[in-house]
Amino acid sequence: MVLFREAMRQRLTSRPEIADFLIPSFGIGCRRATPGPGYLEALIEDNVDFITDKILSVIPNGVQLETGHEVPLDVLVCATGFQTSKGPPFPIIGRGGLTLEERFTPFPQAYLSLAVDSFPNHFMLLGPNSAIGSGSLTRILEGEGDYIVKCIRKLQKEGYATMTVKRERVDDWSEYCHEYFKKTVYTDMCNSWYKSEGGKGDRIIGLWPGSTLHAIEALRAPRWEDYDWESRDGPRANMLRWLGNGSSITHTKTEEEQGNGQEYQGDPAWYIEPRFVDVPLEHEPEQDEEFKMRPFSH
Question: Which strand (E) or helix (H) includes residue 58?
């Protein structure tokens, strides 16, 4: 904190009143670290007016301040941040007519940031608790995408019509997040898009409760028991019907392939190809660098 304050005051030496206004009292990281390179230097230029009075209204030629003073403007840029406290601006309707906006009241909740109870087959990228305070957001998005693809494959392969996350698991996740963030800087006294209630609430709803690596491992293997399932063919259907006729796809051709006289290119002995053979290290297989570099939670 001391180094940050000194660096800001040094850049604003000629306008110390700006430093007094901008330097926050909350901890570093409670909200995104700002300003960016060159911003402070721009504020002290001769052609820049630094005005801290609140805007009362927008008028045809600029803005009117609460003091009554009018500021003429050619362009007005509104940098109001992100709205993460509500549902999307378009209707998403789940079971019983429940809308996602209603389910996200008083604050948004989504199991592992991507699934909501009462909304079958509904998954989200960048849902509640999906961003990251530090680390790779792109990698979390990839993990979410892979998770969703695994769910779609299970639905298609095993003949399910719907999968819906259980309300109990959403509640468990919400409790986990709340407890995790109590010990972090994100709950310090600042307005932040990380928080509920438009940035002023006591719930952190914008960030994943952990590191990027933690998110990757948590999303790697879906816990199917956390979902309720509906069979496509009703409750009395044989749930192992996905086993088919006992043949592998490498043994069969589609009707289209047979009609066109095409030869199937699959290899019934693919598992002996060198690229698919996993040979453990002699004597100490647990010392394999791949395993040590990328841990497997399950």
Answer: strand 55-59
Give the pLDDT confidence score for residue 34 in this predicted structure. 73
pLDDT in tens, 156-174: 999 999 999 999 999 999 9
The boundaries of the domain holding residue 65 are 2-72
Contacts of 264 (CB under 8 A, 6+ apart): 250, 252, 253, 257
Is residue 171, in this structure, part of any structural domain at all? yes
The set of residues, in sequence order, having a beta carbon less than 8 Å from that of 223 and lying 6+ positions away, is: none
pTM of the prediction?
0.82
Strand ranges (DSSP E) for the chain? Answer: 55-59, 62-65, 70-72, 160-165, 227-231
Residue 275 lies in a domain: no
Rounded to a whole number of angstroms, the CA Rg of the chain reads 27
Residue 82 included in any domain? no
Closest CA to 27 of 210, 188, 200, 201: 188
